[in-house]
Design goal:
The protein is α+β, with helices and mostly antiparallel strands and 193 residues long. The protein contains three helices and twelve strands, in the order βαββββββαβββββα.
């Protein structure tokens, strides 16, 4: 589950036109009830029985979420029901009016003058017509650590990556493999000598 596109500075009234789009990359539908969308200062809890189909989009508009996306830099998070960040994205520059920040298939981000809420992203820069032009990636996806342990992970879904439970599992497996390797070498050495 990823944040796929969002519109921080719509042409006209920000309080009505801002939105955040999620994309379910998985092969199964997901009930997002109890998940949260968050910006730097507030959170919105997704209502029970809000289901996003496999390989589908779901858009949340500001009048429903009450989330106000800052025009001059923001951090948006998708938080699972256990309180673990599943996905984060941020940008530091001024949002161009009427342009959405959209995630490209390679995981990079680009401003697009052709927002596509609820459908596949189209990256067009202002002034282009039919051809699309990729621009640099002003946003970054971040790990969920504290500033001291902030590990920037570019272009990845963060569900389970870098969480303490996942790190302990990996460390435990590595220790066991090391012990079994040493024991195997000692046994072989004993039989060979």
């Amino acid at each position: 589950m990823v944040i796929n596109e969002f519109l921080p500075d719509p042409a006209g009234d920000n309080s009505q036109g801002e939105w955040i789009e999620l994309f379910n990359e998985g092969d199964e539908p997901v009930d997002l009830g109890g998940w949260k969308l968050a910006d730097k200062t507030s959170k919105f809890t997704i209502p029970k029985n809000t289901v996003i189909s496999a390989k589908s989009f779901l858009v949340f508009y500001r009048p429903d979420t009450k989330l106000s996306i800052n025009n001059d830099g923001e951090i948006l998070s998708l938080i699972d029901p256990n309180g673990e960040p599943a996905f984060k994205v941020s940008y530091d520059d001024k949002a161009p009016e009427g342009q959405a920040l959209a995630r490209q298939p390679d995981g990079k981000w680009a401003w697009s003058s052709a927002p596509t809420p609820g459908s596949q992203n189209v990256i067009k820069t202002a002034g282009t017509s039919k051809s699309s032009k990729t621009v640099s990636s002003p946003a970054r996806e971040e790990s969920a650590g504290s500033p001291e342990e902030d590990e920037r992970i570019i272009g990845q879904n963060l569900a389970g990556i870098g969480s303490p439970r996942q790190n302990y599992k990996i460390a435990g497996i590595a220790v066991l493999l090391g012990l079994f390797s040493v024991a195997g070498i000692l046994l072989l050495k004993r039989f060979i000598v």
